[in-house]
Amino acid sequence: YHHGFFDPSIAPLRKAYMKLMGTMTLIIVIILWACLPLYWGSFWLELTHSPGLTAWVVNRDAGNFIGDFVQQAMVNSSHGMWDPIPEGHLGWQVVSAADAGSDQDIETAVAVDERVWVVLVIKENATAILQEARANGDPSYDPTSVLTWYFSEARNEIATDTIIQELINFILGFTAGRLNTILAAEYLAEIQGNTTALAALARAPQTIAGPVATTMVNLRPYTAPTAIAVELVGSIYLIIVTFIWSNGHAAARMIVAPHLRTSSYLRLRMIAPLIFYLPLSLAFSMISLPFKLPFDGKYTYAGGFFLYWFFCYLAMSALGLAIEAMITLLTPRFAFLFLVPWIIANVSVAQTPFELCAWFYRYGYGFPVYNLSEAVRTILFDTRNLLGQNAGILLGWAGLSLITMPLFTLIMRSMEMRKARAE
Questions:
Q1: 148-195 pLDDT per residue, tens
Q2: Rounded CA gap, 246 and 216, in Å?
Q3: CATH 3.40.1710 domain range(s) in the chain
Q4: pTM (global) more than 0.85
Q5: Domain 50-218 part of CATH 1.20.272
Q6: Taking the alpha carbons of 412, 413, 418, 423 in that order, is the dihedral positive or negative?
Q7: Parallel, antiparallel or unpaired: strands 214-218 and 147-151
C-alpha cells in the first residue's frame, strides 16, 4: 500500500490494468455504436413517415361547396399539391358517409379497432345549413359543428400530441381560413345592396365572419401523464430489477449447486425465479397505487390493478428469464453484454408508433416491453383490446427462456463437472 500508480516496480500490474480497462472501454464503445443507433433511429424522420398515419375524410356534405372544398383540400395535402403545407402530412383517404357509418361506428374505427388514426367528418348538409342560417339570420348557427375530427390520444400520446395535432391544426386552420374568405367574398357580392340580407347577417354575424370552424373530439384522452412511468420507463426498471435479482441468484445458487443433482439444479434454476417474481412484481405494481393511475379505465379499479399486476408478472418472467438464461453463458461478470442490447431493443419499439418508424422496427410487435405497454394502455385507457395476444407473446418469451436456460445450464454444468474431476 505504499506505491504510486506510476511506480516502476508495479509496471506489470499497471500494464495489466490498462489492458483490461482499455479492452472494457472498447467493448462498451462497440456496444454503444451497435445498439444506441437503434433507439435514436426510432425518432428519426418521423415527419417523413407521417403519411403512414392513416386518416379518413368523411364528407356528409358531398356534392356541395363546403364538403367538396374541404375533402379536396385534405386529398391535396396528402399529395403535396397545396402550398404552403408543413413538412410531412397524414395519409388522407376519402371514405364515403355510408361506409364510415354513424358517429358510433367512427368511434369504433378510431378508438376500439384502431383501424385509423384520425377521422374528419364534414357535417351533413353543411352548405345548405349555412345558406339557410344566413338567409334567416339564425343566431344559433354554430360554425364549430361544421368540421369535427376524432382521434384517440391514449393510443400513443407522443404521435397524437406532437405529430397528428400539429399537422391537423395546420391543414384545417389553413383550409378553414381560405374557405371562409371565399364564402364571405361570394356572399357579400351576392347580397350587395340587399338591406334585408344585410340585416339578417347582423343578427347572425358568425355566418359571415368564420362560418366554418373545427371541433376536436378526443375519444380516449391520455388523462394520467404518470402512466408513462408504467408504460415505458417502468419497463426499464423492471429489466434492471430482474437483472439485480439474477446476479444475486447467481451468487446464492453457487452455495448449493455443487451438492445438487443435475435434475434438482435445473428445477431450482427454472422454478425459483417464477416464485420470487411474484412478490417482486406485486411490489413493483403497488408503487403505482398512491399516484392514482386510472386502473378503472376499462374494468373495475381492483380488477384493473390485479390485471396490471398479472401483466407485470408476465413481463418480469419474459424479461428476467431471458437474463437468467444469458447470465448462464456470460456469467454475472459479463452479463451487461446482453443487458444493454436487451434494454435498447425493447425500449426502441415502445415509444413511437411503427407507422412513424422504418419498416424493420416492426419486430417490436413480438417483443416484451411493447406488449406490456399495449396491455397497460388497454387497462388504463380502454384502448384496443389485445390482452390475449399480449399475454401470449409474453408467455412465449418466458417459455423460450425455460427451454434455453436448462440447455445452457447443462452445457456450463458439464464443463464445471469436468473441471472438478480434473482437479
A1: 999 999 999 999 998 999 999 999 999 999 999 999 999 999 998 899
A2: 49
A3: 50-218
A4: yes
A5: no
A6: positive
A7: parallel
